[in-house]
Design a protein that fits this description.
Blueprint lengths: L1 E5 L5 H15 L5 H7 L6 H10 L4 E7 L2 E12 L5 E10 L8 H15 L2 E6 L6 H9 L28
Parallel strand pairs: 4-5
Antiparallel strand pairs: 1-2, 2-3, 3-4
Length: 168
């Protein structure tokens, strides 16, 4: 049976494995390299996730099947200039073999419930262009597009490798 809950310190090693798998998967998609270098934290992931589970924000949620963690999500609560709050799903990943059975939905529901309890007026999530499965997943969870980010890549020579040794 699929289940989602707030992550604990004991979950950090597994969440780190899943986060590395997410980064490896998404950097292969259009927009993924920039996502990996701008929108998510780099190594050391164990330090970043350890700090996260010890505090209230960001919230880390893990999803499991029969008690085995197979997915995770990261959500932050942003305070906007008008005094309102907005939830932002920074990461959501389920192992490929565990997709389509409700784990992602359980994680998303737990995140939305957290954001509702935090007084958020909405929740944002990102889907990379061309990653149709992610877009479809979020639409099935009641999300709709509210903005499209357009990007013009410049030819600046070869890309440097992603710096995974930066501090969170």
């Amino acid at each position: 049976m699929e289940h989602a809950r707030t992550a604990t310190a004991d979950d950090v090693p597994r969440v780190v494995e899943l986060a590395r798998a997410l980064r490896a998967e998404l950097t292969q998609h259009r927009g993924g390299h920039l996502w990996a270098t701008r929108d998510v934290d780099g190594e050391p992931l164990d330090v970043m996730f350890s700090r996260a589970v010890a505090g209230p924000d960001p919230r880390i949620v893990v999803g499991s099947i029969d008690g085995v963690v197979v997915g995770y999500g990261v959500v932050t609560v942003e305070h906007l200039r008008d005094g309102s709050r907005l939830g932002r799903i920074a990461e959501l990943f389920v192992e490929p073999d565990a997709r389509g059975v409700g784990v992602g939905e359980a994680i998303a529901n737990e995140i939305v419930d957290h954001c509702r309890a935090a007084g958020c007026t909405g929740v944002d999530a990102v889907a990379l262009p061309g990653h149709r499965a992610t877009k479809n997943f979020f639409e099935e969870q009641g999300f709709t597009a509210r903005a499209l980010v357009m990007h013009h890549e410049l030819e600046a020579g070869p890309r440097p490798p992603i710096d995974n040794d930066s501090d969170p």
